Amino acid sequence: MARDLPSLNALRAFEAAARLESVSQAAGELHVTHGAVSRQIRQLEDELGIALFSKAGRGISLTPAGRQLRDACREAFDGLRDTCSALRQDQQQAPFLLACPGSLLARWFIPRLDRLNAELPELNLHLSASEGELDPRRPGVSATLLYAEPPWPADMQVYPLRQERIGPVLSPRYSGAARLLDQPTGVLLGEALLHTRSRPGAWRDWAERQGLDAAQLRTGQGFEHLYYLLEAALSGLGVAIAPQLLVADDIAAGRLLAPWGFVETRHQLGLWVPERQPQGPAQQLADWLGKALQQADA
């Protein structure tokens, strides 16, 4: 059964005029014209078939019906305000669950987590890490930080943050480091290269962008996830292929070397947010991440 109500805009205009006992003050509070409030009240009176105000000198006063409707509106609007306020507070206090690859979390995100929490304390950030395939549609996940190749799916708001760059890295402790350093990129075609099963095409992509014959690449020890691959490189086990972002701190500290530089891939690091999620907190996080990435490049 239909629950017919007068226009909510008309009820809002009436409630403000009744509470303030002034059409002009109601217009100021609602940021509309005096005439707009008067028209809304006349519309409401016509719909109800009863007068809600009467003239009182140069002002207005409520009729008995007007007082009855005023009290009902006050109770209804107060209840709505309280409920909306509680919902906003609940949303602000609810954790923002960010999913991201464990390697990205360990090598880039965690070293900057204190600063993020200090600068965005209202975000109430919680983290979920995985080295497997991340599902940005997983229930409970507020956003997912991941590398992917455009185009983006229609049911996701994606905030692009950075083009991926990959390149070979090795530890100064690697037994073959002295032999490889200062050599052109082609020297790696004869090397047993460390690789990861989670990104099997990384070496091929790098070789093609270097103008090398990817078919001549030799693969050595393989690892299930990127995090383990980078640990192997740090331990001096060989030459690995890695995203620049994840090894920048190690290169700056001298733990890893990148003598052949990095090349862009088709992948982009982005913050993926389901359309069902409020975009305000995600936009805040995306803005923060963008600034932090710029600082990392400086």
Molecular structure report:
With 298 residues, the protein is an alpha/beta fold. Among the domains are: 85 residues, Arc Repressor Mutant, subunit A (Orthogonal Bundle); 102 residues, Periplasmic binding protein-like II (D-Maltodextrin-Binding Protein, domain 2), CATH 3.40.190. The chain has 11 helices and 10 strands. Helix 2 crosses helix 3.
Q: Tell me the strand percentage band.
A: 15-25%
The value of Rg in angstroms is: 31 Å
Distance between the termini: 64 Å
Helix- and strand-based class?
A: alpha/beta
Name the CATH superfamily classification of the domain at 165-266. Periplasmic binding protein-like II
CATH architecture descriptor of the domain at 165-266: 3-Layer(aba) Sandwich
By CATH reckoning, the class of the domain at 165-266 would read: Alpha Beta
Q: What's the rounded overall pLDDT mean?
A: 90
* SSE pattern, N- to C-terminal: HHHEEHEHHEEEHEHEHEHEH
Q: Give the overall form.
A: rod-shaped
How can the largest sheet be summarized? 6 strands, mixed
The strand count comes to 10
Which stretches are low in confidence, meaning pLDDT under 50 for 5 or more residues running?
A: none
CATH-assigned fold name of the domain at 165-266: D-Maltodextrin-Binding Protein, domain 2
Individual helix count: 11
How is the largest sheet built, in terms of strand order?
4-3-5-10-6-9
Estimated helix fraction: 40-55%
